[in-house]
Amino acid sequence: MPNTSDLVALLARTDLFGGFSPEELAACAAAFRLLRFNKGALLFARGDPGTHLYLVVEGRVRLAITSEEGRELSFRHAAAGDLFGEIAALDGSPRSADATALTEVTAYALERKAFRDLWSTRPGISAGVIAFLCRRLRETSGQLEGIALHPLEVRLARFLLLALGNREAPAGKRVPLDLGFSQSELAQLLGASRPKVNIALGALESASAINRTLDRIFCDPVKLAQIAQQDDA
């Protein structure tokens, strides 16, 4: 059984559940179950029924699509505090991607029928689900625009800013960022080749927006923000 107070706090920070009232959050939290997955475990495969949505507590999950030729495209990593699998769980359609544990993973799971019972009896939850789907549609449109219209270094700068969250650098220093995955994974998430991502990283480094070591990227959020906004001028 989940720790209800901890789970409510996690849910309140997600896009889907963040607008719910305390009572609605508590009702949803009570329906979740705690699960653990070993590194390399397949949580679900593309085409599987969308029976659950998941909230990561610890670890990292890769969401990817594999083509008929065997080429894999990672389009998202779900880390602590992230929801995944929510769209298929909402509409009951088959999974659109594979979900694989890149590390040992602890996650909460909510079964589709339990969530459907909640939103069918609580108008506030139903309205929150609709608002979430509208936001997700706008985000998808923005992502497609970014891939189609913006230079890779701009997309990379925006990606790094999102990864940094609200962290700010002390005066005269950069913020250390451990992405937790390889440059090849980064290339897949950005929809580019690994050599092109390496060139874009070099461009950010030349602009003093980042500094790279073997296992970390040290970021200057102010300079990254300037680069990220270049195409919006």
What can you see in these coordinates?
With 233 residues, the chain is of the alpha+beta class. The protein folds into two domains: 4-147, Jelly Rolls (Sandwich); 150-232, Arc Repressor Mutant, subunit A (Orthogonal Bundle), CATH 1.10.10. 44% of the residues lie in helices and 21% in strands. The chain has helices at 4-12, 22-29, 86-91, 112-121, 123-149, 152-164, 183-190, 194-206, 221-228, and strands spanning 33-37, 42-44, 52-58, 61-66, 72-78, 83-84, 98-101, 105-111, 175-177, 210-212, 217-219.
Helix share, percent: 40-55%
Helix segment tally = 9
Oligomer: single chain
Q: For the CA atoms, what is the radius of gyration? A: 19 Å
Number of structural domains? 2
Structural class per helix/strand content?
A: alpha+beta
Distance between the termini: 51 Å
Biggest β-sheet, characterized? 4 strands, antiparallel
Q: What's the count of strands? A: 11
CATH topology of the largest domain: Jelly Rolls
CATH superfamily of the largest domain: Jelly Rolls
Tell me the overall shape.
globular
- Stretches where pLDDT is under 50 for at least 5 consecutive residues are none
SS strand fraction: 15-25%
CATH class membership of the largest domain: Mainly Beta
Taken in chain order, the helices and strands follow as HHEEEEEEHEEHHHEHHEEH
CATH architecture tag of the largest domain = Sandwich
